[in-house]
Amino acid sequence: MAELSNQLMAFTVLAYLGAMVGYAAEYAFGKRSHIGRAAVRPAQQLVGAGGPPVVDEVESPIRPAEARDRGALLGWIAVGFNVLALLLHLGALVTRGVAADRMPWGNMYEFILSVSFVGSAAWLVVLLRRPGIRHLGLFVALIMVVLLGANGLIAYTPVGPLVPALNSYWFVIHVSTIILASGILLLGAVPAAMFLLRTGYDQGKRRFPYTLGKRAPEAGTLERLTFRLHAFAFPLFTFGALIAGPLWAEASWGRYWGWDPKEVWAFISWIVYAGYLHARATPSVKRTTATWIALIGFTTMLMNLFGVNLFFEGLHSYANAG
Amino acid sequence: MTVVEDQMAPPAPPPRRGNPIWAFLRNSWRQLTSMRTALVLLFLLAVAAIPGSVLPQRSVNIERTAGYFRDHPDLAPVLDRLGMFDVYASAWFAAIYLLLFTSLIGCVIPRLADHVRALRTVPPNAPQRLDRLPHHAAGVERPDDPAGTAAAVARTLRRRRWRTVVREGAGGGWTVAAEKGHLKETGNLLFHLALLAVLVGVGVGSWYGWHGNRLLVQGADKGFCNTLTQYDESKLGARVDASDLTPFCLQLTDFRAGFQDSGQPKSFDATVLVDQDGKEYTRTFTVNDPLRLPGATVNLLGHGYAPVLRYTDRFGQSQTRVVPFLPRDGMFTSEGVVTYPDANVDPTGKRDEQLQVGFEGVYLPTVGTDGRPTSVYPAERDPVLFLTAYRGNLGVDAGLPGSVYALDRRQMAAGRLKQVSGARPHELRPGQAWTLDDGTKLEFLGTRPFATLAVRHDPAQPLVLGGAVLGLIGLMLSLFGHRRRVWFRMTPLAAAERESGGTVMEAGGLPRTDYPGFATEFEALVRAAKDDEETA
User: Cα A288 from chain centroid?
Assistant: First the structure.
C-alpha cells in the first residue's frame, strides 16, 4: 500500500505537470478577447457567513464562444489533467493513510501532501464557480509541481506509526484545520501575485514579470478573490493555530504557549495576515500595498512549512527530514 | 482599528492657539491611534518575533542557550545584552506590543461609543432619488393603500431581522427605511476587546502562575512533594511566594513504555500515588492526558532508566544509589554518573578525600551485536552498563555547582581524580559485580524507570481561552457580516385608479461594504414585499 501511494504520488506530479503544460499552452495560444470578456464579469459571493462556500448558479455567457476556440480547448484539457491530478493526489493520500492506519498527517511529507491537496481542491472549487479565471491555473499547477517535487525530494519519510506525542484527538482537530487553512492561504497567494502583475501591467509597466499580467483576469476580480480566500482561511487558521494548538499544547506539554519555533512562525503569519485584513479594510491604504502584505504572509507560511522543520529544532519536530 | 474612515476623521478644529504641549500630546495620540501606525506596529511585532525562533531562548531551551554561549563566546554576551535570548520577555518586545495595544484601545474606545450611538439611531430617511442607489426597483404595485402597504413591508423586514422605521411623507406617501448588519461592527469590537482579554490573561498568568520540572524515579523512597526545593528547575510568577504552592506529594509507582519493533515509541503510562489533603489515591496519566490535581497540572514529558548500584568499600561498608541516566538518543543510550563521596571512610571516622569513588558511563537498554556503545532498542531486551571507575577527590566539597550527570573534568585535568579501570569501559549486566583494583566492589542490581514531569499552575488559563474563543467569534462576525440599508417608498396610485386604493412601490438598496451577495438579497426582499402571502 505504501508502495502504491508512492507510485500514485509520482503520477500525481506528472498529471500536474500535464495540467501546467496545458494551461501554459492556453496562456500562449489563447485569444485575448474572451479573457477580457471573462474578466469584467461581476464577482460572485464566495463565502457565506461563517459557513462553507456557497455555490451561486451563474450563467456563463462565454462558454459557447469558447467551445470553438482552440486556446479554450487547450485550457479545458488542462483542467481535465488538473482534475485527474487531484484524484491521483487524493489516491496517494488515502493509500498513505491506509498504509499507516491513521490520518496521513504524521510528518512533514504527509503534511505538505495534505496542504497541497487542500490548495488544489480549493482551486478547482473556485474554478468551477468562476471559469473566467482559468488562466491562473498555470501558476497553481506550477506551485503544485514545485511543492510536491520538493516535498518528495527533501521531506520523504517512509510510512510509520504515530509517536505517542501525536496520539490525541487534538491531532485530528489541530492538524486538519491547519492543513485546510494553509492550503487555502497558499492558494490565495496566486490571485494576489497575479493582481500585482496585472495592476503593474495596467499601469504601463512592460518589463518581464509584468508581461505575465497581460492575460490575467481583470484586476478587481483578482483582488476580490484574494480577499475572499484570505478572509475564509484566516478564522480557520486562528482556530487551528491559536485555539486548538494551545489547547493541545496545554494537555501535552503543560503550557498553552511556549514560543516553540513553529509557534513563533504561526504567530508571525497570523500577525502578517491580520495586517493584510486591516490594510484591506482601510480605504487610505492602497490595494496593492495590502496585497503585498498578503504575499509576505505567504512567505511566512512557506517558512513555517519548510524552514522551521528543516532549520530549527523544536517541539514540533516530527519532520524526520534531512 | 479598521474601516469606517468617514467617522474617524473629525471635522477640522477652529484655528485656535492652544497650549503647545497639549497640542503635541494630542497630535501624538492621533498619530499613535492611526491605522498606519497600527500597521507599522503589527509589522514590527512580527519582525521582532523572528530572532526568538533563530536564536535559542532561555525560557524554551536553557541547555541550547548555554551551548550557544560556548560556541560563540564573543557574540553571545553582546546579543544577551540586547535581550536576544529572552526575546519575548525583553523590554523592546514589550514596548511594541504595549504600544500596539494602546493604539488598539485608542481606536476601539471611540468606535465603541460610535457603535453604541449607531445602534440607538433609527435608520435615516430615504434619499430623494432611490434610482441613484446601486440597487433599485420601481413600479411594484400593490392593492392596499400606502399606509397598509408600508406596515406590511415593515413586518416583512422585521421578520428578517432588519431594523425598520416607517415614516409618513408628504402627499399621502409613506417610506420604510431599514438597516441591517450592525453585527459586523459588533464583531469587530468584540474581536479587539477579546484580544485585550487575552493580553490581560497572559499577564495575570505570568504573575500568579508557577511551574517546575522534576525527574521522578520510581519507588517509595524516591517520592516528591510540591515544594520549591524539590524541583530540579522552577519558576515562580512575580506575585507567587514559595509558600503559595499547592501542597501535594507524588510517588511514581509504575511506569510502562511500549515500543514498536522499529523502536518508535507507542505508549507511555505513568502511575502515581497522590497524597493531597490527607487523602491518598492512585492515578495513571500519559503524554496527552495530564494528571490534573486541584491547583496544579502534572504533565509527563519524558522517561528513562535509573540503574541501581551498590558499592562496597574497603572497610566493608555498602552504599546503594539509584541514579537516573539521561537518554541521549531515541534508542535510550543513556549517560550518567554515580558518585560515592562518603566511601572509604575509616571506621574511626577519618575521611580521606583521595579515596572518594565515582563511576561514569553509558547504559544501553539493548546492546547491539557489534559491541558499539549505542543502544539498538529502547526497551530493556539486553541491558548493559559500561562504566569507567575513578578514584580521588570528586570536587563535590568545594561547593562549586557541577553537573550531576558528569564527573568534574577540572579535577581530572588537575590529576586529583584518576581513572582506575582499564582503557575500555567495564561491561556490567544486571546482577553482575565488578571488583576494582583495591578490592572494593560495585554491583549492578538492576534499573528502575524514571519519568520527567512538568508541574504547572496558571490561574488565568480560562480567561485566555475565553478571550481567544470570543475573539474568533468576533472575527468571523466582522469578516462575514455586511452592513446594508434598504428603503421602500409607497406612493398612492394615480387619482384615476384611486378607487382600488392601490399603491405603487419603489425600492432602493445600498450596501455599505463590499458585498456581492447583496443583489440577490435585494431582489428577494423586493419579491417578498410584493408577495401578498408573506406580508399578510
Answer: 20
In this predicted model, what pLDDT tens digit does every residue of B375-408 receive, in sequence order? 999 999 999 999 999 998 888 766 666 677 788 8
Supply the range of the domain harboring residue B83.
Answer: 5-119
Mark whether B441 and B458 lie in a shared domain: no
SS3 label, residue B133: coil
Whole-number Å distance between alpha carbons of A266 and A131: 33
Q: What is the ipTM of this complex?
A: 0.84
Tell me B324's DSSP state: P
Q: From chain A, pick out residues whose CB is under 8 angstroms from the CB of B50.
A: 264, 268
User: What secondary structure does DSSP assign to B416-441, as a single string?
Assistant: SEEE-S-SSPEEE-TT-EEE-TTS-E
Query: What is the tens place of the pLDDT at every residue in B205-239?
Result: 999 999 999 999 999 999 999 998 899 888 899 99
Closest CA to B512 of B58, B50, B118: B118
Contacts of A8 (CB under 8 A, 6+ apart): A88, A91, A92, A95
Q: Among residues B334, B333, B335, B306, which one has the least CA distance to residue B321? A: B306
Is B190 inside any structural domain? no
Number of Cβ within 10 Å of residue B499's Cβ equals 8
Spatial contact of B282 and B435, defined as CB atoms under 8 Å apart: no
Q: Nearest residue of A to residue B58 by CA position?
A: A259
User: Does residue B475 belong to any structural domain of this protein?
Assistant: no
What residues of chain B, 211 to 230, have a C-beta less than 8 Å from chain A? 211
Q: What's the domain count of chain B?
A: 4
Q: How close are the terminal C-alpha atoms of chain A, in Å?
A: 24
- DSSP classification of residue A47: B
